[in-house]
Amino acid sequence: MDFFSGSCIEGYESTCSSMSIEDFTYHWGFLIGPKDESAELVPGLRCHVKNHPLQGWAYEEVGLRNVKATNTLLARIVIAKIEDKKRLLRLLRETRVVQNDPNFRCRTWVSDALLRISNSKPSVVGTSELDWDKIERKARRYVEKKTAAGRYLEADRMLDPKPTWNLMEEKEVTD
Description:
Distance between the termini: 23 Å
InterPro entries: DUF6914 (IPR054208)
Number of strands: 8
Low-confidence stretches: 8-21
Helix content: 10-25%
Shape: globular
Radius of gyration: 16 Å
Structural class: alpha+beta
């Protein structure tokens, strides 16, 4: 069985004045990986939207050598057990990507995708927490806590598995 993580990854700045700075602090997406992460390298998949300078927003699926740690990953929030990976990927691929709208962001795409997943019949996930507000609030607080503790300042830990919070069980599984 695979797990589905709502993840916050690379931080970046923006000058768009119509939205709060909170909208631009993190890049949001999904990571898909196996339940068993006991191996040193655990392959997985990153599903997200990126804003390319010339093409605009585009959906992207990227195979990962190690879903536990990428260069830009700050933390993982485990939000679901996947029941039907094929249908889940189809839902993500078909989630609307908006062009020419300054209010569209990776976080709005993630929110839309979560709504589609929660409304899917039959469900593509089993045990889950798909409430975007709850996911976003927990992810932001979790990364703030890890930042305050200096977790991202230690160069020798940059390639270690990233902090992971299981939102369904309300507990940290990797520090």
